[in-house]
Design goal:
It is built from four helices and 19 strands. It is of the alpha+beta class and 395 residues long. It folds into two domains: 81 residues, no CATH class; 257 residues, Jelly Rolls (Sandwich), CATH 2.60.120.
Length: 395
């Protein structure tokens, strides 16, 4: 069943530490923790986006007004064969077959929205927005072949990523470890000056189920954001990444040129668990895609988080006496605040007469995790019930 809807969020049982809290307070904390966990797993909302490209592969042959299935050698170790790109049962099937050729070991398939690398024959390209493919990865995920959903943007031979880049939205490399996929970027051609970088994505254990999943990318002038089944799994502003050795040019930010879409399978000896071909390789496999969509739109909250900010401080230049303009004290250990001596210390601090205004306390490292946020709430509620704490303490 094809759907662009959002998968329901699942909450696991939450166990709060034994803080000897009243039942009502415990229930309140569970509600707050649930809300925080739900917010942390916020799903992608495309309600304000405009659909600009769509193929649901509902026919019985490839729509050649949208895609070209190329015929050509790849990686020096495989070849793209147009006949292996077929449409049936509501999906695009990109076949992978072991060949008899000792050099080009696999016949694979690919489709793209540009003919013969000719910009004048581009059937679809877009700058910025959201791009998504719903697909089922090949069964033999640790083989020497891989599947990919990617874009070619601008002139990839340029050293400046803002004018050209290969954007690999999803690559199914599975040399070892838990099921996962990768997102990568390549620029400055594919010769000696070639540069690249990868983005570490959050775990996606669902890939082990062998079912269809949605692989998406949001892209604007400030940021690339990877989505898996509608949830964010990684992001990068692509500034200063890649190799700096031998005069190579690091990345200078997201590409600002339109890109066309590609879906493909390829094979190479280095892609598997070793740098050699498998001794007993799979003879046949496939990459199945049942929808590809592109949208125009922006996600302002994501953009705001991604804009880099630089602050410069001249420590050798005095400007005057340091005045206590802050209104909080910090502590390294949150548990201390609601213990006997911690409460006494907070009470003593609250008695400070020269402080210009009520102050508040903050526990370092609390906001870095859900448990920390819960502990901050516990500290506040504990202080509100502590005896002989000055009313000047901000709770």
């Amino acid at each position: 069943m094809k759907t662009s809807g959002i998968a329901a969020l699942k909450m696991t049982d939450m166990h709060l530490p034994d803080l000897r809290l009243p039942d009502s307070l415990r229930r309140l904390l569970v509600v707050i923790a649930t809300l925080l966990a739900t917010a942390a797993q916020a799903q992608l909302d495309l309600s304000t986006f405009k659909l600009t490209f769509s193929d649901e592969f509902d026919g019985d042959k490839l729509d050649t007004t949208k895609w070209q299935a190329p015929e050509m050698p790849r990686q020096g170790s495989c070849r793209w064969v147009a006949s292996l790109a077929t449409v049936r049962d509501g999906a695009l099937h990109l076949g992978i077959r072991l060949s008899d050729d000792p050099v080009l070991r696999y016949d694979c398939a690919a489709v793209r929205t540009r003919k013969d690398y000719d910009p004048k024959q581009t059937m679809f390209a877009q700058r910025y927005g959201y791009f998504e493919a719903r697909a089922k990865l090949p069964k033999n995920m640790k083989s020497d072949y891989w599947a990919a959903f990617w874009m070619m943007c601008g002139n990839v031979n340029n050293a400046d990523t803002r004018t050209g880049i290969e954007t690999d939205i999803m690559e199914s490399f599975q040399q070892a470890g838990e099921p996962h996929y990768g997102m990568a970027f390549h620029w400055n051609g594919y010769g000696k000056e070639h540069n690249s970088t990868g983005v570490k994505l959050a775990p996606t254990p669902e890939l082990a189920d062998g079912e269809f999943h949605r692989f998406g990318l949001y892209w604007d002038e400030h940021v690339y954001v990877a989505f898996f089944d509608g949830r964010e799994v990684g992001r990068t502003n692509l500034l200063g990444l890649g190799s700096k050795d031998k005069g190579k040019t690091p990345s200078k930010g997201p590409c600002q040129k339109p890109g066309y879409l590609k879906l493909s399978c390829e094979a190479a000896a280095w892609a598997g668990a070793t740098n050699q071909w498998e001794k007993d390789p799979a003879k046949e496999d496939e990459f199945v895609v049942d929808s590809v969509r592109a949208y125009e739109g922006t996600l302002p909250a994501l953009v705001a988080q991604a804009i880099p900010v630089q602050i410069q401080i001249d420590a050798a230049k005095p400007t005057g006496p340091l005045k206590p303009i802050w209104r909080f004290f910090g502590a390294d250990e949150p548990n201390y605040a609601y213990m006997k001596h911690g409460s006494e210390l907070l009470g003593e601090l609250g008695e400070l007469k020269k402080w210009p205004a009520p102050w508040s306390g903050t526990d370092h490292q609390c906001s870095s995790s859900l448990l920390g946020l819960i502990l901050m709430l516990v500290v506040s509620l504990t202080l509100s019930n502590a005896a002989e704490v000055s009313s000047s303490v901000a709770r």
